[in-house]
Structure formats: C-alpha cells, structure tokens
Amino acid sequence: MPELPEVHTTATILDKLIKGLVIRDVWSGYNSVFHNGKSNIKNLKYFGEFKKVVTGKKIKDVTRRGKNVLVNLSGNITVLIHMKMTGHLLYGKYGRANAPSSPRRGSRADRLDFRFHGNDRREEWEAIEDGPLKDPFNRFIRLVFTLSNGKHLAFSDMRKFAKVCYLPTDTLSLSTDLAHLGPEPLEKNFQFTVFNFQLKKRLNGKIKQVLMDQSLIAGIGNIYSDEALWIAGIHPLRPVRNIKEIEMKKLFVAAKTVLKKGIDFQGDSMSDYRNPYGEPGKFQTKHHAYRKTGKHCEKKGCMGTIRRMIVGGRSAHFCDTHQK
C-alpha cells in the first residue's frame, strides 16, 4: 500500500501538472453490488452523483492528508482518493481500447487480475503515448478524468481496493475519512514531544503496530516502520512501555529520516506503485530490512541476519542481532 512518501510524491507531481485545469468528463469501470448504498464510486448510483458534482469544476490544487490524495476543486468540493494496496494515479493521453473477454496469459499481474475479477473489461482505456505510462503495472485503469487540456488523470487499481469519493472542502477535516488521523510526521510542529506523547497512548502495544496506527501518526506503514526500527535498533515486538526515552528519540529521528528519504527517491516501487508519469520510485534500492529476509544485516559491525515474522497480520522484517 502506498505510504506517506508515495502519496506525497503523487500529490506534489499532480499539483504541478493539473492545477488550473477543468474536469470535462469522468468514466468509471468500478461496479460492485457490495458497495450499493455506500458513499464511494463503486456504488453506481453514487458514481452518477459524483460525475455530476465534479464535471465542470476547476482543479484548485492537489494536496495530501495521511495516505489520502485530495484533489481540491472549485465550488467547495474535494475528491478524496485513498489508493489502498495497488492503486496509483497517472497523467497523460489516454484512449479507448478493445477490451478482451478473457485474460491474457503471461505476467503475474495478468493472473492476479483474472483471479480477483474474472472476465471484467479492465482494458477499456489505455495510454496512447509512448513511455512509462505503458508499464504493465499501469494498465489496470478503473477511473478516468478527462481534462480541459485534452489529457487525462487515470487511476490504475489492479485489485480494485481503492476508495474514491467527494466531500465538502470546508468540512473535510471532520469527515469520517480524515477526522481519526493523527498528526503529520513531517510537519514542523511535529517534534519529539508530540511523537513520544502519541506513541505512549498505546503503552502495551507492540512498537511495530503502534507506529502504523494511523490514529496516532498519519502515513507510516509497513515499509517505513521496518526501516525506522532497523535504524533505531528496536525490535518490532518491543512494547512501547519498555522503550527508553533515548531509544524513543532515536526512533523519532529514524522515522523522519526514512520518510524524507522515501520522498527524495520518489517513493517505493517494490510492488505496484508508480508516480503520475508512470515511473517507479527508487526507495526500494535503499532498503536495509524490508523484504531482505535471509540477508546479512548491513549495519556496520553487526553480524546479524534479517528475519521475517508476522505482527498483527502484517510482515515485519528485522535484524536478529542489533534490534533488541
């Protein structure tokens, strides 16, 4: 799932690309009876309302809150996009394509798409310009905004887990999607006292899970929690109450460091994530712990090995020697 650096990268790039443009039309390939009555575009009735509300609106800017991309429009409307596990936003020239009635054999992505969605018409749209937009991970187009400059904002979402809805901009922070979120870890006022206070709300919690609790700190997920704990030398199962203040300060610095580094390298594309140009990020080349199972620990002087365990239903990667 895209975390803070990936969502920040997406929002920052899109703000430069689409600010000032007008939404001329919207198409959606989502359709799920499970979402009937719900306030997201997978509910066809809601999508009809969504399309009427956003069409003709001017894009004021694109921002981020936690793991949500916020496309702020004229008329006091914000489109909220939570990309979930496999979603990413793309910008370019798109056109209609001939949609196959059965999956093409070959890539793992093809097989997974068929496994989860059967004979859905997932290739209604395709990029019609050469370049990274044609990356195979970018072809699962589920949502397309036609823009006033003739280009498109497209949303690729292989497993269809994403959420897209519209909300009043002036009450956005009070919405059920955002009201529960903790403070932003890269804001200037997010100092050690705030970090320490937030984590100590879960004194008995395992530090890996507590770091990923979005109600405590917004934006940190599996990748960046693994990397921060590796740098700080803290085992993912350590209860918060057993972490000394000096260790907590190391973790505070480590968390900020890895999040900033993730942004510097345009996000992490170990899995599906691509930026709006269709390009992969490069933070996956900087991992010390995440998905390095069985590798020798890279910490200077450490003779440990990276191990993997499940913590709260999520994978945790850690050094079996220097993380205590």
Question: Descriptors for this entry?
Answer:
324 residues; alpha+beta; four-stranded antiparallel beta sheet; 12 strands; globular
Detail the topology: elements first, then pairings.
Blueprint: H1 4-18, E1 23-28, H2 44-54, E2 59-65, E3 68-73, E4 77-82, E5 87-92, E6 94-96, H3 108-117, E7 125-127, E8 141-147, E9 152-157, E10 163-168, H4 192-199, H5 207-211, H6 222-232, H7 245-264, E11 306-311, E12 314-319
Antiparallel strand pairs: 1-8, 2-3, 3-4, 4-10, 5-9, 6-7, 8-9, 11-12
Overall number of strands: 12
Largest sheet: 4 strands, antiparallel
Fourth-level CATH superfamily of the largest domain: MutM-like, N-terminal
Which spans of ≥5 residues are poorly predicted at pLDDT below 50?
Answer: 100-107, 109-122
If classified by CATH, what would the architecture of the largest domain be? Alpha-Beta Barrel
**Overall average residue pLDDT:** 93
CATH class of the largest domain: Alpha Beta
Assign an overall shape. globular
Strand order of the largest sheet: 1-8-9-5
Amount of helix: 10-25%
Please indicate the count of domains: 2
* Number of helices in the DSSP assignment: 7
Structural class: alpha+beta
What pattern of helices and strands is seen along the backbone?
HEHEEEEEHEEEEHHHHEE
Rg on CA atoms, Å: 21 Å
Strand percentage = 15-25%
How many angstroms does the end-to-end distance come to? Answer: 27 Å
Q: What is the CATH topology descriptor of the largest domain?
A: N-terminal domain of MutM-like DNA repair proteins
